[in-house]
Amino acid sequence: xxxxxxxxxxxxxxxxxxxxxxxxxxxxxxxxxxxxxxxxxxxxxxxxxxxxxxxxxxxxxxxxxxxxxxxxxxxxxxxxxxxxxxxxxxxxxxxxxxxxxxxxxxxxxxxxxxxxxxxxxxxxxxxxxxxxxxxxxxxxxxxxxxxxxxxxxxxxxxxxxxxxxxxxxxxxxxxxxxxxxxxxxxxxxxxxxxxxxxxxxxxxxxxxxxxxxxxxxxxxxxxxxxxxxxxxxxxxxxxxxxxxxxxxxxxx
Length: 252
Ligand SMILES: Nc1nc2c(ncn2[C@@H]2O[C@H](COP(=O)(O)OP(=O)(O)OP(=O)(O)O)[C@@H](O)[C@H]2O)c(=O)[nH]1
Fold this sequence. Notes:
Keywords: Membrane, Transmembrane, Transmembrane helix. Pfam families: GGDEF. The protein has 252 residues and is α+β, with helices and mostly antiparallel strands. It has helices at residues 2-27, 35-82, 93-110, 124-131, 133-150, 174-190, 217-233, 246-251, and strands at 114-121, 156-159, 164-170, 193-195, 198-200, 204-210, 239-241.
């Protein structure tokens, strides 16, 4: 589109220049040109002035534009890198924290429900101790993929700590959140992890709660942690929903 405009501008300038030249020549007594000669001369002039305009103006402008696009892309990539966990390729703690804070602000402002879950791998130390740290890393990556695939937009998952994943479920009630958490739990439980040359199952425990208006991140996460603790204490491979105090529940 820019090229079309530039060509039109150059042809326009050439016609104007040709008009000035013709007017000057006729002022000096030269016979007026025929219309076709005028157009032909103007086009010739356009071709003559197009080359220097292209090299002196358009090419440097284009180069500058491409440099800026590349710089923006690099900045975007760096920004993405800063919020990505290198092992699992999902969001890291910083990324998912920004996501949960955003979701909390939305829920606070518009009053939509927001469910938050913390998933933690069961007996993960045993996996590392038995099969090695590299095998443990592979399990972490696979669990991250299984969790990501169990979610839909605008739900988000990020690696919050070593073997902990934070899940943010905007526009989701506790009952709906529970179904999603159960789906994640059973998807991980059914996944055929290959450890020590044979298929093995690994499970996760999940604590789930719902954001309460007026609370901060620390309060929300301490409630979800409490639910996770109960899931571990209850035998693991469980989803435990944190009981919301009646006063808060009525505000939800
Ligand atoms: N391979 C690997 N292991 C990790 C990573 N981050 C944390 N871990 C391991 O995660 C394990 C966590 O162990 P614990 O906190 O005792 O928990 P657990 O064995 O999963 O037991 P429960 O949570 O009570 O079921 C430790 O062995 C850590 O070394 C990591 O990036 N890679």
